[in-house]
Design a protein that fits this description.
Elements (H helix, E strand, L loop, with lengths): L6 E8 L10 H12 L6 E5 L4 H10 L4 E5 L4 E5 L3 E10 L2 E10 L2 E9 L6 H20 L5 E6 L7 H10 L1 E3 L2 E2 L2 E2 L11 E6 L10 E3 L17 E7 L14 H26 L5 H34 L6
Parallel strand pairs: 1-2, 7-8
Antiparallel strand pairs: 1-14, 2-4, 3-4, 5-6, 6-7, 8-12, 9-12, 10-11, 13-14
């Protein structure tokens, strides 16, 4: 008799939890908890979880005894499988990523919960830096094992920035099948939540799908969650995947990010000079813009260092 195929069921949800309990939160949390009991997930990534007691409620509902939480970043991973280790990183501005290494049989899998900054303008430029740092963190932590990146990345699925992340990692967005979106919206009319795995020529047997959609109640009631979530089934082939050491689209993606950060730094420097002529509030605005320019320049320097390292690896050895 043929053994049943192995699979790993994962889900992600930005629970939009409060840092301090307010009147509507217990009802909203109970609705999420009730829904989690039906998911049957092996591992879950949560964002905007700021309190240990909230994570305990979520983990218990999912039947996940193993949990990792960074209260400072509001990121968590829970699992019914053993968590061998976990580590988190601030990617800038209090947004970040948490990596939990779970054991599935004889294999180890890295499950990431990430939350990046939403918005346009300077926020979009800051998010580019966060996307770069996120990709570098994953490449550093998961060089030799499969990973699944889950979370609220703050960018629309059809935005160029989401493609840049896939190019940086050579990743597969499980919400896209043959070029078509299959998950639908997760926040308002957009999809900002993701399930990404290392790319392979073999398509997964199942794509991700939107979940927790019923938590957005009638207009007369307060919403149980501002976000929908995603659920994905990772088949046995996933456990054999490893990230590409030199993703073919990475160099171009790094160049695009480098140029965008340079432009953002120049724009912030210009705003600083212009604000300096404004009485009273001008000095404060100028200082804030100058700080922003310095932050952009710092991330740009990291990107340029990554480009330099990549170019050195790409130079073939001299022939005799």
């Amino acid at each position: 008799m043929k053994a049943a195929a192995l699979s790993l069921v994962v889900l992600t949800l930005n629970v939009a939890g409060p840092r301090r309990v307010h009147q509507g939160w217990p009802t909203r949390r109970e609705a999420i908890v009730s829904r989690l009991k039906t998911e049957g997930a092996d591992a879950a990534a949560f964002q905007e979880v700021w309190r240990g007691e909230d994570l305990a409620a979520l983990g218990e509902a999912a039947d996940h005894a193993n949990r990792a939480l960074d209260e400072r970043l509001g990121l968590a991973v829970t699992s019914r499988l053993p968590i061998e280790s976990w580590v988190s990183r601030d990617l800038g501005g209090g947004y970040g990523v948490l990596r939990a290494r779970v054991r599935s049989g004889k294999s180890e899998v890295d499950v990431y919960s990430a939350r990046l900054e939403p918005g346009d303008g300077d926020a979009a430029a800051r998010r580019l830096g966060q996307l770069f740092r996120l990709s570098e963190f994953i490449r550093e932590e998961s060089a030799a094992r499969p990973f699944v990146l889950l979370g609220d990345l703050g960018v629309d699925a059809d935005d160029r920035q989401s493609s840049l992340l896939l190019d940086l990692l050579e990743g597969r967005d499980l919400c896209v099948s043959h070029g078509d979106e299959v998950c639908g919206r997760t926040l308002d009319s957009r999809r900002v939540d993701y399930a990404v795995i290392p790319y392979s020529s073999r398509a997964p047997r199942e794509n991700a799908r939107a979940e927790f959609t019923e938590l957005l109640r009638d207009e007369d009631d307060p919403p149980a969650s501002l976000h929908f979530g995603l659920r994905a089934v990772l088949d046995e082939g996933f456990l054999r995947l490893k990230p590409a050491s030199q993703p073919p689209g990475r160099d171009e993606a790094l160049a695009t990010i480098d140029e965008a950060l340079e432009d953002a730094a120049a724009d912030a420097t210009l705003r600083s000079a212009q604000a300096g002529w404004i009485p009273f509030l001008g000095a404060r605005q100028a200082a804030a813009a100058q700080d922003e320019a310095a932050r952009f320049a710092a991330v740009e320097e990291e990107v340029q260092s990554a480009r330099l390292r990549a170019s050195k690896r790409a130079v073939p050895a001299a022939s005799d």
